[in-house]
Amino acid sequence: MNVTQKFQAPSAEHWFGTDNFGRDVFSRTVEGLKTTFLVALFTVLIGSFIGTLVGAVTGYFGGIIDEVIMRINDVLASFPSMLVAMVMVCILGRGPVKLVLIMGVVFIPSFARVMRGEFMKLKNRDFILSARLIGCSHWRIMFSHIFPNTLHTLLSSVAIGFNNAVLVEASLSYLGIGVQPPHASLGRMMSEAQGYFSYIWCVLFPGLVMVLMILGCVLLSESVVRLKRR
What we know:
By secondary structure, the protein is mainly α. It has helices spanning about 25-60, 65-75, 80-90, 95-120, 125-135, 140-145, 150-175, 185-190, 200-230. The longest helix is centred in the N-terminal third of the chain and has 37 residues, at about 25-60. The radius of gyration is 22 Å and the shape is elongated. The termini are far apart.
């Protein structure tokens, strides 16, 4: 930080210029990208892991277990994820770890519903009936026979969930209730630069990096869908 070098335009010394405190925007963008990426990554890991377990149990066993769990899931899914995350952050407090846990819980319902549908679709296939006839346990059937056939759908859902997690994290940080200083975040960088649009590089580069990251995940999810169709 060097306030004597604030708002310097992009140059060989400062590739993305400097901000209102003389901080190198490129260095902060790289740090913010890492923070946003890790928050989104661990969010989808938590959401997909627990959501897959919930979806597997409800989709495979059905009955009262399915009814009770999915009604709870429907209630949670009826609220916008952004709103739920905002309320939980205000109640439980701020910080990267808390933010990841909160967002992970918020993303569970979407993964649970997708995986439930996959398990319901596959559980009565001939190869599953054959596995039952030779005495395979329910858990072996679920995770050795059905789960591998859901991976394409799961990976596609993870890519979409990652994009949503990036947007939620960036929105929360932009509003000041997400990642807090001294940690950098792409959303927080854009929030801090909103009063300095005359120095467009302060907001342009963090926003551009976020768009490219989301676009990359969209292309990845489309590739997974194309592989599934082959």
